[in-house]
Amino acid sequence: MCGILCCIIRSSDQKSIDDIISRLQSLQDDLERRGPDSHNAILCPLGENLWLFMYSTVLWLQGSHVCSQPLKDEKENLLQWNGDIYYANLHLHPWEGLELSKSDIEELSFRVEEKCIPQHIKNDLNRDIPMPERLPTIHPSDVVFSQLLADPLFISAVENLETLLKMAVSVRARTHPGVCKNCLELQECTHTKVAILFSGGVDSGVLASLCHEFVGNNETIDLINVAFHQKNSDEANAVPDRITGLSCFQELEKIHPGRWNFVKVDVDKERLVDKRKSHVRHLIYPCNTVLDDGIGCALWFAGLGEGVLLNGESYKSPARVLMVGMGADEQLCGYSRHRERFKSDGWLGAIQEIENQVTGMWKRNMGRDDRILSDHGRQARFPYLDSRVVSFLHSLPVWVKADFRQPRGIGEKMILRLLAHRLGLHSTARLPKRAIQFGSRIAKLEDRKEKGSDACPRL
């Protein structure tokens, strides 16, 4: 993700202007971590004693070459751009007629609305929806999954979700220059270009399975798995996310052998404390809770992608694209809060909780998480937040997304579990949701009596 700094300076003295720009240097250094491929500054007058200072850094992922910023046209208009463009040709005034992005995917609206869903996907969604009492109430999960995957309604919903997720993964896995972080000056590169934040849960497992289809046959995909421990590094192997990660990796390896690098990122408490104090807490700011601390630090070390492969070889992922499974829990009732609302307020309560969670994603996933992951010069991409996927999931009845009468590991995110089962990830499809701060065991390294909503004294 590119970096942008824009500052209006009021001064009549050049020395004062230079001093202010010098004091912004630490911000410029941080932005260069986000955009390591190009950086440039512009200082231009706005009026009497007013100056505009703009500084941009670029992470090159689209286009045939690095495009330095800020952009300036013959009319002195300035542009700083930060973000990805998918599915569309974008025209911006006053550069009307200048194509800033090209795509061979059909042109779509950027708005999240019904027309984002291809017509063939909507056909089966207009018929009567069964009431929840018609859904199977028996388990184990294999029986529930088999019954639901024989129902025409669920078959249609799962197939349509698979189609849309493939489109979302495809454009995100393929939109890059074709070289890794280490080969920017070369014409060809066979190193890993796509990595996945990988707990081994159903969200990341499905993304990994779908990514296989859209990455070059001669390239590996990095599965980055983070675990926190005290001084004894052997403790990392007993961390829940390490156990589930290896389990899902084994399923993926059976289906698509030779494709995967399982990257073990092991972090002890001393290193956690040091990096948080010196750097990570500044990225988490202005978020300040215990929950922000746990998630933020776990994501930063995972995004670093530096660890050990299963054969014991030291490894740092060269991937510039980082697939992230965030957004699935919010939309598909993955949190315990969804189940609690269902118990207290029924299906309407679950629907309201989905809305509450989704409306908060801009601050979490698009704010805190993006700041942290981008710090490593990688582009975090969120297929579950693709506009088509969001629109489709919004169109489904809540009891197609989840069935809270089923136990954990079946009822929440049920449609995604059905897709995982359909893709051959049978064990992964049954794993209960475990938040990253608990699954990675970072929460156990600190004060265990703290609540997630408490202000964190370490930030």
From TrEMBL:
GO MF assignments: asparagine synthase (glutamine-hydrolyzing) activity
Protein origin, superkingdom: Eukaryota
GO biological process: asparagine biosynthetic process
Entry-linked CDD domains: Asn_synthase_B_C
Keywords, comma-separated and alphabetical: Amino-acid biosynthesis, Asparagine biosynthesis, Glutamine amidotransferase
Family matches, as Gene3D superfamilies: HUPs
Name recorded for this polypeptide: Asparagine synthetase domain-containing protein 1
